[in-house]
Every structure is written in C-alpha cells, then in structure tokens.
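USER: Note each token:
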Amino acid sequence: MAHTLSAKKRVRRTQRRTQRNKSIRSQYRTYTTKALKALEAGDVENAEQAVKHASSYLDKTFRKGVLHRNNAARRKSQLARKLNALRSQT
C-alpha cells in the first residue's frame, strides 16, 4: 500500500494507463485475429483489407506506447509475409 502522496498519485496514474492500454491491446489483437482468419480463409481481397487495418492499428498502438516499435514491426512483417504467400499461391 502506498503511503506518500506521490506514491498514491503514481498508483492512480498506473491504474488509468493500465485501463487505457488494456483496451488498445484488445483492439489490436482483434484486428490481428481478423487478419489471420481472412488469410486462412484464402480470400485475397478481404485479407488485404484486414492486413491493412491491422498494420495501421499496430502503428497507432506503438505510437501510443502500448507496444515497442520492434514488436509492432515484427507483427506487421509476419502478417505481410503471410499475405504475400497467399498472393503467390493464387
């Protein structure tokens, strides 16, 4: 339990940030999952749109400080690699 005023404020700030980060993290996971499902379904047009939305939101997530830059880049790269593999199959 925090005793000083500054420590109590720090706890309040952490709770607000955790709540914000949780919703942002949930949203990027949703977009990523939708992209992966579209890729598995084999529909190139829907997969392109889903990967585009997921990549955009991953950029936003890292700009807000929820994800590290390299983590977001790695996730985008994995999606792009799978999309390119799908395109080469058709």
Q: What stands out?
A: The radius of gyration is 18 Å. The chain has a mean pLDDT of 95. Helices lie at 5-41, 44-63, 69-89.
